[in-house]
């Protein structure tokens, strides 16, 4: 395989990791106001992602850094072209990160709850808008500079993409909360999972169908099919109370959606409305030397990261509970 | 103001703000790891209480470092897309390595440390704070490698067809002489910062007669750390100044308001310059000081601003190759001054606490608390100096800052983000300081030996 293809795949993998992991974090944030009644329940909701959300967010930073290193032209065009949406995402991530760290230490818990909610909702929506635009193609000039405006990015297809990721992450988060809790909280999460799941099947299904009709390939029809099947399976498993299975299914759906988007994109990384100006894995890439160096670094360190992040999930595998008796008997 | 000015202001504000938290995170993580190790070894409850007290303040600070760090990574693409296109092949590599090797490590293991108190065996739990601490230092290393390449580009060539910088030797980038002197300078600076922070707060707790013996321990510890680290800062800074004289003579000349090439150059203490005519109106000097600093000899030759400007005109073509000289001069001077005072404070504190003494004078408390600000000022001014001193270059000798800005970005966009970040950062600064004060006032958790709290170890988790 060409190194440029390897790095295209690696960046797709990093975004996939980010969406699967921070996806449920976002979902948890979006669900907070609808789910947790009293303060004890709210704290439980925060504790569900407390140990892992920061590590999850690093997937974004590595995806960004890897794009900078492997496809500098893509990094430059994307982030300068999508300036204001990215600025909003950054503000949201700031508010959200601070809320997660400061809520329990501060007296103004309600204000932090708002910050956590909006800080989760805005990126969950805007990442979908951004990726829909990337796949659809944007106006680029011969120097690969973005020539559109903010309104160019807010087209109906992209907004549908935003709704698709928002509902998908909310579903994923609800299923995650059901998996991590017991009793009433778990019942509430299950109920919300069914609602979000239905919305996700509708919005995600419509988005995938439009995407496939526009530029679908045989391989991405298959991944789109897997994504849809994953969502439906997650709904069935949630109804049956099989939380672990449901979470696996929503995770699979997110992997398949990301694979569909990146599968349709290749060999472009950012198609232009005029195909002559498109950024491709070839014209956006770094030199073979840099890609080679980075391949070694990734080959050595990615498995290490996966290992210790996996271990983190293992350490915090027990369902959370506020029951003092249960707390006393758990180690 | 145009997009270039706005982008420069935004980068300056977000970077200096981010770097208020970074050194304290690096330094305090080591202090906390050290205290927890002491507890693990001795099982003395005082060490556990100190670990948790300083650990909580560390986490409040760490949160701000994390969220402001995200902005740093994406700004290159947002505001400096021409720079990103030009150097991505070289500059992107250490940045990506930071994420993969360092940032995952610190974030993941810090999560384990915060929530793992009752879930991990003590030895494993101790390892998590050490790994997080190592992660913060590694992070600094990769970022400094990236920044040092901008100060002193190595291991690359310019592709004649694409006119872009291409990496030819990653090892040269990672072992850049500039990186190797800057890394210890920044790390020692981080320890000075943590030292002043811990010392100031400990002195305040002692003045309030709270856990006096325990806070005397952390006061002494912090002052030893602060003093040793201040020595390290001075030594590495000296070494760095020599490399800078060689690699970026204009920066050194501007730092010293030295206008003409000079042998046996003096170290300027106070100067009033006349930039227009390229000379000083007033200049109070330590004889031969600059020659010693820059070349290790009494009569070493140091290049002056006017001579370098003439040389650069011939080398790079028309242009003003002088940074803002007053800014370079004063930021350099004040950086050294504040750093020196921080070291002096540690020394004085160690003297006043010698042989079991615990200073009770309100003066001591006041000075120690005010002293917390010294390393923060020195750190900020250090970055202002190193970045502003490189101007008009963004990559020294290779790419000018004016050529690096995003051609697609427009004034309203950049103005919105500049105002947005500045306002949000200001609000967060106020919140952070309030939280720190709250938990400093609250003091350490009660001695676990004295009573058993109902909810064990609450405040470190959510």
From TrEMBL, chain A:
Task: Provide the GO biological process annotations.
Answer: aerobic electron transport chain
What InterPro entries does the entry give? Cyt-d_oxidase_su2
Assigned GO CC terms = cytochrome complex; plasma membrane
| Chain ranges passing through the membrane | 6-37, 82-103, 115-137, 157-180, 192-213, 219-238, 245-266, 286-308
EC numbers on record: 1.10.3.-
Q: How does it sit in the membrane?
A: Multi-pass membrane protein
Q: What class of enzyme is it?
A: oxidoreductase
Give the record's keywords alphabetically.
Cell membrane, Electron transport, Heme, Iron, Membrane, Metal-binding, Oxidoreductase, Transmembrane, Transmembrane helix, Transport
Task: Spell out the Pfam families in the cross-references.
Answer: Cyt_bd_oxida_II (PF02322)
Q: Where in the cell is it found?
A: Cell membrane
State the similarity comment: Belongs to the cytochrome ubiquinol oxidase subunit 2 family.
NCBIfam families under this entry? cydB
Q: What is this protein called?
A: Cytochrome d ubiquinol oxidase subunit II
What organism does the record attribute this protein to?
Answer: Sphaerisporangium rubeum
From TrEMBL, chain B:
GO MF annotation list: electron transfer activity; heme binding; metal ion binding; oxidoreductase activity, acting on diphenols and related substances as donors, oxygen as acceptor
So where does this one cross the membrane? 20-41, 53-71, 91-115, 127-150, 186-207, 219-241, 330-352, 364-385, 414-437
GO biological process terms on file: aerobic electron transport chain
- Localization of this protein: Cell membrane
The record describes its membrane topology as: Multi-pass membrane protein
The EC category is oxidoreductase
> What GO terms fall under cellular component here?
cytochrome complex; plasma membrane
| UniProt keyword terms in alphabetical order | Cell membrane, Electron transport, Heme, Iron, Membrane, Metal-binding, Oxidoreductase, Transmembrane, Transmembrane helix, Transport
Q: Is the keyword Transmembrane assigned to this protein?
A: yes
Q: What is this enzyme's EC?
A: 1.10.3.-
Q: Name one Pfam family in it.
A: Cyt_bd_oxida_I
Which family is this protein grouped under?
Belongs to the cytochrome ubiquinol oxidase subunit 1 family.
Which PANTHER family does this UniProt record tie to the protein?
Answer: CYTOCHROME BD UBIQUINOL OXIDASE SUBUNIT 1, CYTOCHROME D UBIQUINOL OXIDASE
Q: What is this protein called?
A: Cytochrome d ubiquinol oxidase subunit I
């Amino acid at each position: 395989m060409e190194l440029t293809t390897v790095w295209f795949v690696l960046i797709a993998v990093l975004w996939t990791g980010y969406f699967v992991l921070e996806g449920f974090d976002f979902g948890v944030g979006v669900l907070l106001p609808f789910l947790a009644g009293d303060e004890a329940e709210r704290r439980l909701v925060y504790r569900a992602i407390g140990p892992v959300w920061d590590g999850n967010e690093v997937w974004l930073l590595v995806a960004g850094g890897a794009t900078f290193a492997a496809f500098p032209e893509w990094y430059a065009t994307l982030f300068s072209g999508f300036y204001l949406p990215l600025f909003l995402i950054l503000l949201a991530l700031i508010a959200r990160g601070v809320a997660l760290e400061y809520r329990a230490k501060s007296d103004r818990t309600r204000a932090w709850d708002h910050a956590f909610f909006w800080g989760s909702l805005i990126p969950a929506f805007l990442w979908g808008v951004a990726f829909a635009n990337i796949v659809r193609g944007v106006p680029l000039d011969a120097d690969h500079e973005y020539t559109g405006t903010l309104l160019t990015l807010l087209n109906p297809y992209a907004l549908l993409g935003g709704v698709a990721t928002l509902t998908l992450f909310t579903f994923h988060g609800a299923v995650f909360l059901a998996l991590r809790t017991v009793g009433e909280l778990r019942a509430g999460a299950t109920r919300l999972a069914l609602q979000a799941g239905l919305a996700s099947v509708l919005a995600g299904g419509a988005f995938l169908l439009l995407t496939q009709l526009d530029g679908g390939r045989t391989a991405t029809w298959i991944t789109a099919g897997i994504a849809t099947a994953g969502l439906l399976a997650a709904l069935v498993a949630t109804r049956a109370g099989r939380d672990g299975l449901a979470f696996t299914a929503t995770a699979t759906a997110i992997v398949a959606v990301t694979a569909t988007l990146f599968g349709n994109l290749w060999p472009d990384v950012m198609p232009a409305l005029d195909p002559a100006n498109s950024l491709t894995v070839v014209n956006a890439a770094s030199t073979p030397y840099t890609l080679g160096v980075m391949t070694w670094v990734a080959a050595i360190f990615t498995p290490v990261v996966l290992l210790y992040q996996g271990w983190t999930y293992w350490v915090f595998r027990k369902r959370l509970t506020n029951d003092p008796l249960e707390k006393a008997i758990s180690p | 103001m145009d997009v270039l000015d706005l982008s420069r202001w935004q980068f300056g504000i977000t970077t200096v703000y981010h770097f208020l938290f970074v050194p304290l995170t690096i330094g305090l993580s080591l202090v906390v790891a050290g205290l927890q190790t002491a507890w693990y070894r001795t099982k003395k409850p005082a060490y556990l209480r100190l670990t948790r007290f300083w650990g909580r303040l560390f986490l409040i600070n760490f949160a701000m470092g994390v969220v402001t760090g995200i902005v740093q990574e994406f700004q290159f693409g947002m505001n400096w897309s021409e720079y990103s296109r030009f150097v991505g092949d070289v500059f992107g590599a250490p940045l990506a390595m930071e994420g993969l090797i360092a940032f995952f490590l610190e974030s993941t293991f810090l999560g384990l440390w915060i929530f793992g108190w009752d879930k991990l065996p003590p030895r494993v739990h101790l390892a998590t704070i050490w790994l997080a601490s190592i992660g913060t230092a590694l992070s600094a290393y990769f970022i400094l490698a990236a920044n040092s390449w901008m100060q002193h580009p190595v291991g690359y060539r310019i592709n004649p067809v694409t006119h872009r910088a291409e990496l030819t030797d990653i090892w040269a980038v990672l072992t850049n002489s500039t990186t190797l002197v800057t890394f210890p300078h920044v790390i020692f600076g981080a320890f000075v910062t943590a030292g002043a922070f811990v010392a100031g707060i400990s002195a305040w707790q002692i003045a309030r007669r709270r856990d006096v013996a325990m806070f005397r321990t952390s006061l002494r510890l912090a002052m030893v750390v602060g003093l040793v680290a201040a020595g390290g800062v001075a030594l590495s800074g000296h070494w760095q100044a020599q490399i800078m004289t060689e690699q970026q003579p204009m920066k050194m000349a501007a730092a010293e308001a030295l206008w003409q090439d000079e042998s046996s150059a003096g170290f300027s203490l106070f100067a009033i310059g006349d930039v227009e005519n390229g000379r000083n109106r007033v200049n109070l000097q330590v004889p031969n000081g600059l020659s010693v600093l820059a070349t290790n000899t009494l009569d070493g030759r140091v290049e002056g601003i006017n001579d370098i400007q003439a040389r650069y005109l011939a080398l790079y073509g028309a242009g003003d190759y002088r940074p803002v000289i007053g800014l370079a001069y004063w930021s350099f001077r004040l950086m050294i001054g504040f750093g020196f005072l921080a070291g002096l404070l540690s020394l004085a504190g160690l003297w006043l606490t010698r042989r079991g003494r615990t200073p009770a004078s309100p003066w001591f408390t006041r000075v120690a608390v005010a002293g917390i600000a010294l390393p923060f000022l020195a750190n900020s001014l250090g970055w202002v100096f190193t970045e502003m001193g490189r101007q008009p270059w963004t990559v020294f000798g290779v790419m000018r800052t004016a050529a690096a800005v995003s051609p697609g970005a427009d004034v309203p966009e950049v103005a919105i983000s500049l105002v947005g970040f500045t306002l949000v950062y200001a609000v967060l600064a106020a919140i952070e300081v309030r939280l720190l004060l709250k938990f400093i006032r609250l003091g350490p958790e009660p001695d676990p030996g004295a009573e058993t709290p109902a909810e064990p170890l609450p405040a470190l988790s959510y």
